Amino acid sequence: MKTYIIGYGSLLNRSSLNRTLPQVEKIEPIYLNQYCRYWHANENITPTFSSTFLGVSKSEHSRINCIIFEIEESFLPVIDKREFLYHREQVNLNDIEFTSNQFEINTDDNIWIYITDKPSLASKEFPIIQSYVDVCLSGAMQLEEEFNLENFAIDFIKTTKQWSPSWVNDRIFPRAPHIHQPDAYRIDIMLSENINQYFSKIIIE
Known about the structure:
alpha/beta
């Protein structure tokens, strides 16, 4: 019996994934049915800074793009600690659409996803932050290129719900963001073309 994790936010980004689980080498992009991704995980990063991050909930007839990767069962507590805003639930293998053949997963294997504990939408107090959007979207773009997937990054935007005008641009030196976020221009174009009603209201801090 093997253990797999589904990542749908910052874990799409290999750098973010490997900071938590450096032993993970092989991943596969997937589409997951019966779940919806939302901006609804509030966190106090520090006593003075708060943000809203991505989470998922069960949702009939919904579909999101994610990744799946294998880990040793003994590492589950490490991920549980990282995902303290969420609880872990098992996923039905039949709800997964694979994009390649990286893994041979059986029905008796354990597939886990992290569900938001206390969903709460983005607000002025808990805004969406651009640095986190950048991590997620640049990860989706990397996957698109690595696995030759069409519109994987745009699918990430379109299958994510509850985008909000409560959104701050916290990139360092935002007048020249490419220095710190090389994909800044491409990310901004995709966001403006797909959710401009929210992106146009972003506040630079």
